[in-house]
TrEMBL record:
Pfam families: UDPG_MGDP_dh. This is UDP-glucose/GDP-mannose dehydrogenase dimerisation domain-containing protein. InterPro entries: 6-PGluconate_DH-like_C_sf, NAD(P)-bd_dom_sf, UDP-Glc/GDP-Man_DH_dimer. GO terms for molecular function: NAD binding; oxidoreductase activity, acting on the CH-OH group of donors, NAD or NADP as acceptor. Residues 158-247 form the UDP-glucose/GDP-mannose dehydrogenase dimerisation domain. Gene3D superfamilies: Cytochrome c1, transmembrane anchor, C-terminal, NAD(P)-binding Rossmann-like Domain.
Length: 252
């Protein structure tokens, strides 16, 4: 049995995928049901996937909900999908394996189907537990899987850095291209430029279009703003501070 704690767009996507693959899944989220963790503790071969919010408060990642859940779970095997900086991850018990997610709110199920890399940060023994639980991702009989998945094992801090650097780099890319278009967009064809640049492998086609779908400029959404701010605080990056300042001007 697998408990999925937190059923926002990430938790619900993971729960649905596990369920469709034949796993027994229990959703726990006070917003959606009355299930509680203590109802299932002691269940044989129990595993827990945590997908709760980690907002950024005053520049610092708030992992208080995670800590409350971990205290209740004890030594139950845990797969943590919340975004948490390396210094916080290293304070968690060894039974916690970190699995950064790269799902977008609008296309979460499609992104999960198409994922090519499944990163597991933790001890070899714990990584193996979760690799086995999600081995169905490479089962050709499961129609929802559209491409093979590479399981990548590393330590928790490195897995966290992958997530933060990924999001911060893409946010930086958005801010840069949007600033260029905002400042000198009347002197060239922005759409044609990004279509050409997208053909270069060292640049790639994503996160260059401007304006956004809503007509605005700058990055937004569930993850980029909070992750950039939290990682700037953790890494003391002057570049990211400039990115934050630039993005704020674009939003004005």
């Amino acid at each position: 049995m697998i408990l999925v704690i937190g059923c926002g767009f990430v938790g619900e996507t993971v729960a649905k995928s596990l369920q469709e693959a034949g796993h027994s899944v229990i959703r726990i989220d006070p917003k959606y049901n009355d299930n509680t963790i203590d109802m299932y503790l002691g269940t044989p071969e129990l595993g827990v996937v945590i997908c709760v919010p980690t907002p950024t408060v005053d520049g610092i990642c708030d992992d208080s909900i995670i800590r409350e859940v971990l205290e209740e779970l004890g030594d139950t095997p845990v797969l943590l999908k919340c975004t948490v900086p390396p210094n916080m991850l290293e304070t968690y018990p060894e039974n916690v394996t970190y699995n950064p997610e790269f799902l977008r709110a609008k296309t979460a199920e499609e992104d999960f189907k198409k994922q090519k890399h499944f990163i597991l940060g933790g001890t070899p023994e714990n990584c193996e537990i979760w690799k086995n639980q999600f081995s169905y991702l490479n089962n050709p009989k499961i129609k929802r899987i559209l491409s093979p998945v590479e399981f990548i094992e590393t330590d928790r801090a490195t897995a966290s850095m992958v997530k933060y650097v990924h999001n911060c780099w893409l946010a930086t890319k958005v801010a840069f291209f949007h600033e260029v278009m905002n400042n000198v967009g009347d002197k060239y064809n922005h759409k044609e430029m990004v279509n050409i640049l997208g053909k270069f492998e060292n640049i790639g086609p994503s996160h260059m279009s401007a304006p956004n779908d809503d007509g605005g400029l700058g990055f937004g959404g569930h993850c980029f703003p909070k992750d950039v701010e939290a990682f700037r605080n953790f890494s003391k990056s002057e570049i990211l501070q400039q990115v934050i300042d630039t993005n704020s001007k674009l939003k004005d």
